[in-house]
Amino acid sequence: MVSQLPAQSAHLVKLAPSGQVPVSVVSNLQSPRSSPGRRTLVPILFAGELGTYIRRLLGHLAAKICALLRPVLGVAGVTYRDVALSPAMAQRLASVGRKTLVLDLDETLVHSCYSDAEHRESGNCAQLPAGARPDYLLSVSIDGLEPISFQVYKRPHVDVFLDFVSKWYDLVIYTASLEVYAAQVVDLLDAGRGMMPRRFYRQHCRASTSLVTKDLTLVSPDMSGTFIIDNSPYAYRDFPDNAVPIKTFIYDPDDTELLKLLPFLDALRFTKDVRSILGRRVNSLNSAVSGSRI
Ligand SMILES: [Mg+2]
């Protein structure tokens, strides 16, 4: 579907898998183009216990370097590079107008859980891996009651994601969570950059059952230029042509879902009416799901 859209102004860059680093070091040393001195040196270096020690040392160094570069290169070795717009693309963008991207918060941009011991039974932080380290710790008092402690885990690549999409769209947060909690989390994510000034909370949702839906007309009356990214299909039940589904995030340091959306979102801003694209996307997903149930 992306190929049917106007040309993109950016592309994915694949980097070499980190596991190949020590292998390439060894093969370079053993290259047939090596000098005679190097040819005699290599068997000595890699023979016996000394060779084992050197191989382990190289492997250890490679692992350390990969760990240091991981936040820069991305968990899966995939990153995204912005490319300047051509005059024709800039003209096209100006003619279709800047659009509004509505972002869900929990399980889309972050995952939060109770860190208090008494809440552990209700299935929260205790379910995460022992080595999981939260990005933020919050203490939230609801209705004047005793404060509740939360751990907040950012979805991998959320900072890069927000940097890109805030250049392309007007960002709005629309969450079913309570304002007293969500406002703090969004402030932390925003980090004073002013990317998400407009926010809608639980009180702005519709709730006929225990599940809530979101009313995108509160965000903007123009449905041709407004869409939401939300992990809950029920949230955009009333606006299926204005939604981009995303996998639910709980805790996964290798998650790349936000990064994978960037090429699509970069292209979508060039369309006149997002529904002409997103209607096909959601409907095809629904067909696939219903087809699999038959
Ligand atoms: Mg959610």
From TrEMBL:
Gene Ontology molecular function, alphabetical: phosphatase activity
Domain of life of the source: Eukaryota
SUPFAM superfamilies: HAD-like
Transmembrane segments: none
FCP1 homology domain segment(s): 94-268
Pfam family, one: NIF
InterPro entries from the UniProt entry: Dullard_phosphatase (IPR011948), FCP1_dom (IPR004274), HAD-like_sf (IPR036412), HAD_sf (IPR023214), TIM50 (IPR050365)
Classification via PANTHER family: DULLARD PROTEIN PHOSPHATASE
Protein name in the entry: CTD nuclear envelope phosphatase 1
Species name: Drosophila rhopaloa (Fruit fly)
